Every structure is written in structure tokens, then in C-alpha cells.
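Sample entry (374 residues):
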Amino acid sequence: MEKATIREAIQTRHLATTARQIKEYYGVDITDSAIDFTSPFFSWKKFRETAYRITPIREASAETTFGALLRAGIDAVANQWYQAAKVTYTAWAQQTVSSQHSSFYAPLNRAGLPRRTGAGENFPEVNTRGLDVQVTNFKFGAIIGFERELFDDDQTGQIRDRAAGMGENSAIVEEAWTYARLIGSATTFGGDAIPASETKPADETFWPWSTTLVGGGSNRPVAYAPLTADGFNAARVALLNQLDLLGNPLLVMSDTLIVSPEDESRARTLLNSAYFPAVPSATPGDLGASFGMNPFQGQANLIVSRFMPSGAWALGQAQRGLIFQRRDPVEIMQENPQAGPAFSQDVYRFRSRARWNVDWIDPRFWFLGNDGTA
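Predicted structure, serialized as C-alpha cells:
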């Protein structure tokens, strides 16, 4: 897609469906350019009064109409802030759409290589091998309540900001989960447990990072270490020599370096300096002399994430290896305005909901130089 990622396209389509239903039922087009729910001049009080005017039969009917329009307004605000949230995982993790409770992935590695065949000899038979990975979608959500008085009297933008937070928080959780899966160790975020990678094949001893992957591949050093020019070069070499399940060259083209904020300046120096970004060598004729060319300049795109553990860094090929699988986009549902807290306490409650998961399909496309422990 040229102007929107998969997550933005799905979320926009969801909002368009809601807008179409509102227009069919009540004759109100919430996508009209004149309605800007995010404007500081937007008034929920006037919005309520308009809902009453278009349904003048009785109060209950008017409240039902307002509830539908209110939900659409909150959804529009949350959707806009969800799309505008600054996330980085979309630049390197492959995004897919799921239509089932669980999705299966069985990528096949390259078949065996052809060999020289003499005259009158049989051509050799070659094998192929693939992975059998299953990714199950998880459900995420939260409930937030707003006092009716805030809707009636809001002139400060409180409702807009609190509603926007529902969309922004959803994007933040997606970002945190993606980087936790990148590291591959169990952790927590926002009080929620994030398990270690759940796609580990039965024949792999360590996953997703190992020096002895099936087929002879390796995607981590023997000992983790902070980011250096030598470490970066070792990671590039390891990926260039990466092997698949059958021991054939995987042909990884590393193009993305992910670091924590603590290593941002070091990584930018490494990737952008015109001269060799290391201490000059004391050995005559050795590489690294003063004003020597920087062989790493422009070799990878840099991504800095606040969700990477301090000192952690990884090099790999974008859109390969790790899957962000979306089943249902973020949606905002309003509780029945004539029942529950809305009736007894004058509180409008909204629930955000989404279904997705993120995990490794094949980590051979990435090299983890440090998981933050060194």
C-alpha cells in the first residue's frame, strides 16, 4: 500500500462501516468534513443537542440516537490517534491479516541445489524442507467511563484527549509486544505478562536465538556484547553466511539495525560517519587508520525503540522473519446508554477491543547482538 499500512487500512475500513450504518439509520454523515471531533472547538454539548433535534420523538429515542452518534465520534477520535501514534515496528515487522482463530505458516526453504550431471547419468533428486508454525490471535481490550456532565459541559477538550488515549494506548501495546517478541524472553508490560516466543519448533534446542540452529545456522554470538564496529561487522557476516534448514545459503540481505535509546548516538555514528568510526589501528597498514573510509556507511536503516532493553541491538532484513498478525482492528463499543452505570450513575462507558498476535516465523533473517544483559 502506498499511503497506509495494513493496520491503518483495516482500522479505516472499520470506521467507514460504522459511518455507513450511522448514515443509514439516522441520516447523519459523521465523515462529513464539517465534523471534526478532534478540533479544540468541537462541543459535545452541541453534538448532544443536535442528536436530540434529529430524533424529536421522545427522550429515550433521542438518547439512543445520541449513543450511536457518540460511539461513532469516540471511534473517530480513537481511530485517528491510533493511526497517528508513533510506532516503529511497522517499518521492519511483516504485517499480515488473519481470518481465523489461529493461522498456520509453513514456509518452505530453498530446494536442494543442482549438481553437475554427466552424460547418461540420472539427475540427482533434491529435497526441500519447511517450518510448521502456528500463531494464535489474542484479545486485547479495556473499559473507560466518562461522566455525562463532561459530555454536556466539556469545553476543555478533556473528552477528546481521553478518547484519543484509547487508540494511542492500543498502538503502544502493539509496539511493546513486538519488541518483547523480538528479544524472545518472557517479560511484562503494563501489568500484562508477555510470554516468550510460542512458535519454537520441536527440533530446535534454543529459540529464537541460537548458535546451533537446525541446518547449521547461527543468529547470535557466543557471548552477547554492546554494539561496536566489530560486533556490527560480525553480525553482517553471520547473516551473509546464514544457512536454512537444509544447510543451503539463505541469502539474507541485512538492511535494518534496531537499537535501544542508549545506543542511538553510537549507531548513528556507525552508520553515517564518512570516516572509519573506530579507534585508529596502531599496526602499520592495518584497517582503521585515521581518515579511513567507513565501510558501514549507509549499510542499514536505523530504528530506535524505547521498548528495546538498554544496550540491546539486532541486525536483520526488514519484512522477514517476524509476523504481526491482525485478526480484528481496534474498535470502540459503547455500553447501552439506557442500562447499567449509564442509567444509574450518569456514566457513559466505552470498551476498546482488538485481536492480534506477533511472533517469530523464522528468526534466521535476524541476528541479535545483545539482549540487554551485556
